Amino acid sequence: MSDSTETLSIEITVNGKVYQRDVEPRLLLVEFIRENVGLTGTHVGCDTSYCGACTIILNGEAIKSCTYLAVQADGGEVITVEGLEKEGQLHPLQQAFSECHGLQCGYCTPGMLMSSLALLAENPDPSVKDIRKRLAGNVCRCTGYQNIIKSVQSAAKQLQEG
Amino acid sequence: MEMKFDGEFEVDLPREKVFVILSDPEKFAPLIPTFHSLEMKDERTAMLRVKVGIGKIRGTASTELTLTEAEAPYRAVYIGKGKVMQGVYESISSFELEESGQGTLVKWQAETNLVGKILSLAGGGMRGYAEKEISKLISSLQNGLSSNPQTVTAKPKADGWLARILRKSDSGETETAETPVSESKIAEGLAGFNDEQLDRRKEAQGKIDNVLSTARAEKRLPRKEDNRLIRGQGLFVDDFHPAGMLHMVLVRSPYAHAKILNIDVSAAEALPGVVCTLTGAEVKAQTNPFTQLGPEPSALIQDYCLAIDKALYQGDPVVAVVAESVQIATDAAQLVDVEYETLPVVVDCKESMQADVMLHEQVGSNYTWQGEFEFGEVDKAFEDAKHVVKIDHLKFHRYGSTALEPNAVVATWNQMGELDYFSNTIMAVPIAMIGPALSVSSDKIRLRTHDIGGAFGNKIGNYPHMTLAALASKKAGGAPVKWLETRSEHMQAGGHGSERNFFDTEVALDADGVITAIRSTHVDDCGAYPRYEPLACVIWAQVMPATYKLRNMKIDMRQVVTNKGPCAPNRGYSRLPHLWFMERCIDICGHELGIPADEIRLRNYIQEFPYTTPNGCVYDSGDLPMMLKKAKALVGWDEWKKKQEEARKEGRYIGIGIGTTLDSGTNNFGQSQIINPFLPFTGQSQASTAKLDLDGTVSIAVGSFPQGQGHETTSAQVAAEVLGIDTDFINVKTGFDTARNSHTGTGGTYASQFAVTGLSAVHGAAVKLRDEMKKLAAFSLEANEDDLEFGVGEMGPEVRVKGSPDKNINFWALSNLANYNTASVPEELRDLHLNVRHVYVAPFQTVDKEKKYGNLTLTYAMQLHIAVIELNRETAQTKILDYGIIDDCGTVINHMIVEGQSHGGAGHGIAASLLETMPHDKDGNVICGSFTDYAPITINNMPDLKYENMESPSPFSYNGAKGMGEGGGAPLLSISAAMQDALYGDGIIIQNSHHSPMFLYEVLKNYEGNPVSLESR
Q1: HSE (CB half, 13 Å, CA atoms) of B228?
Q2: Which one of A90, A107, A143 has the shortest CB-CB distance to B904?
């Protein structure tokens, strides 16, 4: 058990805004985002980085924030689902997930969107196999994944035509 | 309300040219972004039509625009007047022109005064709205007054509203954004970055920035729910943070069966930040055992929200710790010292029936229920049978749909005795369990949900934790207490789907391979406590003969407790195991008699609908042979048969299997009386409210607990159709709330019913509202009700006289009559409040409890799945080569949603069949403590699904729809069938519903015995 009074000062940029906080070393990055920053779009589903509901972008790469300490992200730049929308306009991925019915309950969706964002950043024209491979760490219990594949394909198309 | 705005901008046209445009209403007006059309009244006055709208209120408005001052080339002033949305406005705009190099600096001022209802409609948003509109106007003017729009440079006043908006859109920063972190600061970070890492990070960040900064188009979203969910703006239980909230963490038994000898919470309570603890002794003193649904003697089971003297399963909660943070509560939970004495464990239903180990001694056995369902002349059918097939044991395995959002609740039980739940349970019934346990009147319990991260039936089992959280809140002085299950807690104790064993099955068939009778013993294992049980002992009877026409059945149905986690309903609850059993019977019989799987089904399928089953259920509609034909075409049945034959010659095992399911929807609670005649439940009802809001939109509330099924979307579709307006004008309240009074006792989301019960209630409420609106409109317009129609006019939704569009009253004016302007309404119309409630009561009769006979469900959606698999005999791995789904849920309200439900259900079925199981070892340890062990299906092992829809409208619902969503579990049937098809030639009978490689490997390696026999006469 850690001494709960021991804290470290960290500074993390979340969606372009800097947050300096004193945190316990054991604080998870997802807890930092949800509780210290107050952005609750990033969810926790399994506590063990299997389900990917907590996926965020840290320094340009998709990571699972439920098994990442906030102090590890000190000095880093985080993008969460809340950072996708710009000036009241949805990101093509958000639009595509809705249009293709790539979500039902919406609990996995933020993580799916962030993993998809990382996929499309690396690979603007992914094959179905690429999508399956890259999203294999994101569990959805509602959709049976068919429409998630369609959503990512549709967003890729929109982004390329952009 | 008066608003003033000012600013300046620069354009490249010379001042004289700018003045010419600005001083001519005919040239100036078209520069207004909302410009629609224009007619000149005189040379200084233009009559304009402009498009207006705030939120959902859209229309066009008339404006009179007059040039009142023109001083060439320095100054132009306009006065605009108009009526808009039940209000009037007057606006003075002046433009001062100064030379600025080659171009012109335009300094402008606008003063707008608004009077009337528009203000109440738009509320505080009016100023922001006006700012936006003016910002658009100025941009438009800048472009219009420029020789080349690219050269325009905006120069807003430093601190003006326009400056803020422009700054925002230029930089993409938010107003409050602080200075971004510097690179050197990053380099100093705790983790520390070297140059190479920094380069890599920059590159990755650059790629993300590229994808983030793409152009976006605004389009309408197909589901109302999506608007918040794709933004991460859903409100799930863990997102709810009332002030002063505390956290509860549970200490759970590590043993599956153990006496609790001593509990020491002193160290835990001494930890700073710990508020209180709760133990079984306090729970026993302060609460009553939960109501048992089963009859005596199983009614003697004492189930509390904490273990009292004994822990009965691994994960049984023993102590609750309440603290200021979840971290402190978790630390404190580790300081709780519990002394146990382990007891012998029973995890197998056969051993449980022997009762050498007893869980609830006062009951005298481990049975929660036993009873016989016998219909037709079973013994005679066996005497007359040409063939009898015997199957000694089949087993439907234990798994759970493991919704991604764990069970969770925030309970607040204040000093006034009011109990408030913000929860993700999915049914109103838990109130009926919690109230008596806590001795609280159900009227004092408020139950709400908002967004729910999946439930699949499972979250019905959450009420003990809800009860415990309430007690914790009370002990903590009425503070809100949050309890959030961890995933490993869920895997141990969050509600497993029940497992069912089928013993000593005998199937009688005639010479053509038509099944004439089945007799069998079925035993459910419901875990340590029967929480929603023993209802599973009757719910399967909704689909007793499955899709087959046999008239004689005798099922000895039993349920036992074991030292495993308590079961909770799971997608396809109780029906899916039974349908799996029936499909196993038909396939095994087909193989034994040499009749192909498609052919034996065609000989046995029910062909005429409505069809009354031997136990009195009425199958409403369908066409099973057509479904089979379509499914075969979808996957290319004949080609696969050929490929299968060729593959077998190469030593490869391809199997093709059919699974036919029934999704019985809208349950008749009367069936609970077959289990316990003293239960006071019969029938089924759902409520909805509809209210015309002050802004002319319609609010709908329903009594369901949506978890992704799109109830907001389909409710809006139904109401919009009744009221002749667009779904954008319908607001459907999110989630459930007892305070809305839009539910009945059976309110909930379960038993595949929303399309029937929920939408019937919404329809009824919308019709009532429409009728009231018509009456008021008839009075207001001095017209006959029959001459009125609903539609969307210039000012939004309205009621108008057919053929006279000018004679209309819009929705908000009607709402005004009922809410603010009541003295204008004649007395005989004062009962019209435009705020109605409708309860849909399903047309059920009570059931015959003695004979176990009656209509147990209202509609029967049907699914036919075909799976083509290849089994690797070396590794026991299964690959799905092809998968076809035909879905028939009657008239479809929303195809996108229905297809999505079919995909999702199929996902669960495939997962349960090939990957997911919740096994326990002989000591009752859960062997799937996390998702890593349980391996929920991912996108990588989910095959492509081929899907087609058929529509056989139900004669029993107003809209022809049938509830759906649970029948998609058919892959459990089709994959077992395909597996059997692949292995039958090797003499292997598929006896279990689970086919993961580890499990199947043992079956293939150690297969022995002959579980099936055929007697032919």
Answers
A1: 16
A2: A143
